[in-house]
Amino acid sequence: MTIQLESIKRARAGAGALLLLAAAATPVQALEGYTNFDNFDGATAIDMKRWLAPERHRMIEGKALRMIQRELGSQTGNSGVFSSSNSTNMTNPTLITQIKGVITVNAFETTHCAANAEPSGVQARFVAQFFNAGPGVPSSGNRTNDVGATVRLRRESNSGDAPNVLRVQGTVYQCTTSDCNYGSISLGDVDLGTALVGEAVTLQMEWDQPNKRFNFRRGTESVKRVNYAVSDALAPGVAFRAIGTQRPLANCLAGRTTGFMDARFDDIFVNESALLAPDAAPAARREGPRPHSAARGPRCVGPARVGYMCSIITCPNPEHDTCVAPSIRRAKS
Q1: In Å, how far from its chain's centre is CA 212?
Q2: What residues does each domain of the chain span?
Q3: CATH code for 55-271?
Q4: Mind listing the pLDDT tens digit for each residue in 169-222?
Q5: DSSP of 91-105, one letter per residue?
């Protein structure tokens, strides 16, 4: 009986093997022929007519942080905008009340929708959310009534400026929706002039809470201020400090609007107390500041990894600002 069972098993295994061989020998036919969708030959950017995913890059290049963003608007209607950003956030945001750095726009592009009253736009910016204006204590993650500020180089699709000109602006806003992408009101703006593509622009913004105002400055020009009357006693629902690009693109039934921004960010500074505060990152506190020689330039105060970045960036104004690049992990060479 045992011998018969073994024979049956061997016979079944042999039949299965023959079936597999027969299947492998039979040619497989596609349901229909194939045609090329995208072979990327000669492409310098993602073909937005074929792919829906945005084109976003963040990289250290030429001793600076370069950010690139290219996207399409929505065809859901002829009103409103579709907004998204390509940013990197700073660590310990609540300690940072001042941001200063250099922005250079390498290139930009934005298209207009004639049927939409709102223009498309692209911008490179420093942006931060500092407090909540109430009423009521905000829930974590809900940006409604959060108040923030941004200083930026911006171009809108309906601009009458020359093709290579951007507007430099400082603005204070209050969110009116939970994500703040599609709802906010302005609490005040300042005009910081214009800038050309390829021009390095030094910008700074400060939250002066004791005087209930925000300070904006371009280079060595006079400080321009925006005063506010809303309450600043509450922490924001979402606290952040970031640098990056953003593009609000007009919705358009006739065709998707486009937005492109290629920008360079360098020499990012924050208020010195942000890095000296006792609740800074524990690892950074244990290591302490790294000493710097006179040959390396001015000494920048801060944790060891940040101090190292400072030592090779060279701080232009160390008595007022502290150099920091929290998102960058690669040293300048």
Answers
A1: 27
A2: 55-271, 272-325
A3: 2.60.120
A4: 999 999 999 988 778 899 999 999 999 999 999 999 999 999 999 999 999 999
A5: SSGGG--EEEEEEEE
